[in-house]
Amino acid sequence: MSEILIDNVSVPPRIKAQLNILSKDIKFTREITKGGNGYLFFGENRILKNEVAVKFYYWGGDAKYHAEPSTLAAIEAPNILQVKNAGLLDGEWAYFVTPRCSSGDLDDALEKTEHGNLQAVERTRQILSGVVHLHQRRFLHRDLKPSNIYVGEDGRSIIGDFGSIKYIPEGLNSIPASSHAVLYRPPESIAADSYGFGGDIYQCGIILYQLLGGYLPYEEMAWLNKAERREHDRLTSRPDKAVFIDACIREKIRRGNILNISSLPSWVPENLRRVIRKATHTDPSKRYPSASAFHTHLNNIKSDIPDWSVIGGQPVLRGNTSFRICNDGGSLYVQKSKNGGDWRRDNSITGDSIAEMVEKIEAKI
After folding, report:
1. Domain CATH for 277
2. Helix, strand, or coil (residue 158)
3. 136 and 213, same structural domain?
């Protein structure tokens, strides 16, 4: 890919100056617009030939909440994207340089495949492991969502994009909330402009919900009910419509109505549904007390979670004897396979719905 011309990039002058400095070591090949709160560039180190990402982000505000780049760069953990270089440009902008994860992010993974129960739990545990490292240093990520969780070459989940990260000083339980990524904002950030460690736990709960197949549309109009749509359609200006949609979503978050637990597939067990409810409770004090406690609880219950996943569009329960639910023109039936052998129809299990089939299969094991 050819090198981009820094002079043609539309960014603030101070960022352009830093890009010119960094371009001595980095061949910049691409600027992308995915995400918000800054500018993201991809490139290749001219000497090492490895791919890197450079994120410029706005940090302007109270300096006591700023996460020092040098401290951030000192974190070495398998589930946190390593910061290779970082710095402050001025009172408004900072930047960091990280490896580029060529396998994409969890948003990409969610589009390509449906995660099974245990895979979703394992991914969430990996994310929580990274959050534990951040919280131990009193860092709040504040923007945990699938597009900010990268997938390593080994499939590992890696927390990245530190453009919203803040330091929470000793003696404080919360800091002012982030102002973007409304869909993932915890209720307290809307009701009281407050964000603490429980905010990151809330966001991890939403990610688990999505990994398990929960309905969380990114299309804003999907959040409006019929009455809200009628009111929206009466508005004439685009800005007024955007403000109205934003207010509707915020109110749903504040009331705890952003997640529809009933939209989870029928093979997601009740113990995982309870985990999501606890992690995303509207009252931060009723969530898990720490990311470590959340991680530990998932680890403790994983042996009780049936290993359902979707393979080739069919729900499959894996084990020494595996079962899968098939659909032949609307008629459901079950096949089973012993020790990886051929699939054979099991006429002893019948039902009129997938939920009924799931219940009967699980009763057999």
Report:
1. 1.10.510.10
2. strand
3. yes
